């Protein structure tokens, strides 16, 4: 079967963590043994959490802050269900320790709410993409980064950008169509 | 309490249909007079509300789990069609576990084709469905039965509810019900008076629902048209609540470690773990451990740090061992011979064809790992579980913690994929047992992906041995033997493990299928399209081998045999031929294969085109033609067909669970991957409506995918794949 390393590389195209920069960007104060107080900005709202430094951002969002739109799928950056943005970069939040969060976090909840849909989410709605829906937050966050970098992606660009995001229901044909539609709407 | 909880409490515990300002509507049984669904009659008194109207609006209650297949939308449309409301006006909720929500199709009570001319293979299908119903518990979302189950019942609910509101308005205005009309949730009179259903609810509650006739399909405004899915907005905004997303005030987060050898636990050492950050409790479950913590990840870290000594497996310890067991099983007794036509033993002149096929264990690997949340007190328990079988999940969880079933409430959120896995009760049971360790504290128990992958109820492995004879281009004999572990716990003969081979509409004059069972001791279960997922590959691959042995075009060969037996199936193949511009010829570097499987009442033909890129073989294109009888929502039907094909292709290419030392060797997606954006083919789907009966759609797209690909690879390379996954034989791009 596939060696693990190839998957992590291709499933993780956008993350380059600079540990010094991340250290400087976060005010760390020791709290009690093992736990540290961290300040995070998620979708423009500031949160303070007291946790061991190694806890992944995914589990800070889900269990500490209670934002469950970002999903746990594999824990090893192989499925993309936990994709969020940090300072505009698409990252697998299961692999970013809370101490390494180097900037503002945007999650699916920050991309657009039911009454304030983003163009991309609207394209997902129009194309009726989701089936079970569990991977779709991650798919949409990955696609948002693609469109931010490339306003008119080809099918090959979509293949390259989206292949780290697994969907067991097989919604890929409609994801592709939704990305093309969103690109058209954004260009219009 | 959630809104569904309030409704359930009022309707089921108070036992009355008319509730302060609100009214519930339902039916007892498909085959009983729906005239008065609200009257109590002894044991049949259980009201099963599907529509609930009160001051807050119109709520449709579905007993079907939404796992991606769009059932909430189409069941809502079935009711809304006759109720004369728009989908946007109604709220859809999953109902509580209740005997009243039995699956009539699984019980074999309401297959619509009972009243029609039934062909041999349809008769067999009905028998299979009935057998499955005995085992599965009666409230189940599975077996591609939701539309068979709801097609008439839900429209009857909508129609009788509509007429009751008209009667209430007629009484209020002193008019005749026949002179009133309805639309958009409102009753109108010809002289301009109007009243909404919500305004009429209290009056309607006192009335006996009139008997109604269903509208004919040519009057439908919603059914047959693609509807916006009722779950889509939530799923594109991250607000859809899956089991994994349940939040209850004061909750803790847990994970479990159970024996990867699937037997008991000898001892464990958690001395280091108790001091780890966030850990609240280590729970000795007897057959495994749980860690309850302040955060799921901290629980998983702690669980990994516990030293556990497991009891050895109670089965042979290697993949090879299982296949040896299967091969030996052919020497044993035949379990079932569900098809025996002509005389396959008579001796035939012609070309003999023989093939042996080998299919591996497969995992379900839903995107959402197994999980459930439970709040246990000494007297009662609430459990949130993404279950395909909520009634059995509730009963099983109740038993696991020593409560009576009626003391347990089970709430079904959205399911992050299921494919049969969530019909099991293990993940609900474990969450209940963990919660019992901290009474009064809600605890969400989430499995790691590794735990999920290594503690699945796998699709069983199988071996098939097929013989056939072709004479002068004609198939004159087919004799198949299949052995696997049954996923049904049935005494005596059962046809489940040969489904997809004995029930195919092929007019071969001498046609026999024999099934054998082996007891392997590994937990196995229902996997999208079940027996047909295995035998669809075997049967259709063998038909392809016979076509080539006969020197015939593989599509024409199938078409000729199918035409003798079932016209809608033949039309499906003809449609595929037109869609693909099939010539039987392909240029160098291109291969094409066709496959056909009739499963769950729906004939499906698929064709696949593969390309040798010089840097691996790419699956370029997949064409699908299918006939579910009625395409109630074409967009959802299309999505189920290509999604089902992708699920089948993923398994065919790279799906394989293997064992060493009694443990599954695959841990996570890198070891058990699936098609992704760059490896999924382009699709062209055509939906036909010639079949007389409504068929299933969640599963029938899966079985033909593997053989279509294998047949295309044969066309490209001349190599016949008789073992799955195909990556073992071919250089496919992954």
Oligomer: heterodimer
Low-confidence stretches of chain A: 1-32
User: In the CATH scheme, what's the topology name of the largest domain in chain A?
Assistant: Ubiquitin-like (UB roll)
* Strand ordering within the main sheet of chain A: 1-2-3
Shape of chain B: globular
At the fourth level of CATH, the homologous superfamily of the largest domain in chain B is Aldehyde oxidase/xanthine dehydrogenase, molybdopterin binding domain
- Kindly give the count of domains of chain B: 3
CATH class of the largest domain in chain A: Alpha Beta
Largest sheet of chain B: 7 strands, mixed
* Radius of gyration computed on alpha carbons of chain B: 27 Å
Largest sheet of chain A: 3 strands, antiparallel
Radius of gyration of chain A: 17 Å
* C-alpha end-to-end distance of chain B: 47 Å
Number of strands of chain A: 6
Helix content of chain A: 25-40%
Proper CATH architecture of the largest domain in chain A:
Roll
Q: Summary?
A:
The complex is a heterodimer of chains A (188) and B (734). With 188 residues, chain A is α+β, with helices and mostly antiparallel strands.
Question: Could you characterize what this model shows?
Answer:
The complex is a heterodimer of chains A (188) and B (734). Chain A is α+β, with helices and mostly antiparallel strands and 188 residues long. Chain A folds into two domains: 4-110, Ubiquitin-like (UB roll) (Roll); 112-187, [2Fe-2S]-binding domain (DNA polymerase, domain 1, Orthogonal Bundle). Helix content of chain A is 39%, strand content 14%. Chain A has eight helices and six strands; from the N terminus they run H-H-E-E-E-H-E-E-E-H-H-H-H-H. In chain A, the strands form two sheets. Chain A has a three-stranded antiparallel sheet, with helices on one face. A three-stranded antiparallel sheet of chain A has the order 5-4-6. In chain A, a hairpin with a 5-residue loop joins strand 1 and strand 2 (36-42). In chain A, helix 6 (136-149) packs across helix 7. The longest helix of chain A has 16 residues, at 172-187. The radius of gyration of chain A is 17 Å and the shape is globular. In chain A, 52% of the residues are buried. With 734 residues, chain B is an alpha+beta fold. Chain B folds into three domains: 3-234, Aldehyde oxidase/xanthine dehydrogenase, molybdopterin binding domain (Aldehyde Oxidoreductase, domain 4, 2-Layer Sandwich), CATH 3.30.365; 243-312 and 370-446, Aldehyde Oxidoreductase, domain 4 (2-Layer Sandwich), CATH 3.30.365.10; 330-361 and 458-728, Aldehyde Oxidoreductase, domain 4 (2-Layer Sandwich). In chain B, 28% of the residues lie in helices and 22% in strands. Chain B has a seven-stranded mixed sheet, sandwiched between helices. The model of chain B is unreliable at 1-21, 27-48 and 105-138 (pLDDT under 50). The chains are: A alpha+beta (188), B alpha+beta (734). Chains A and B meet through helix 1, helix 3, helix 4, helix 5 and helix 6 of A and helix 7, helix 8 and helix 16 of B.
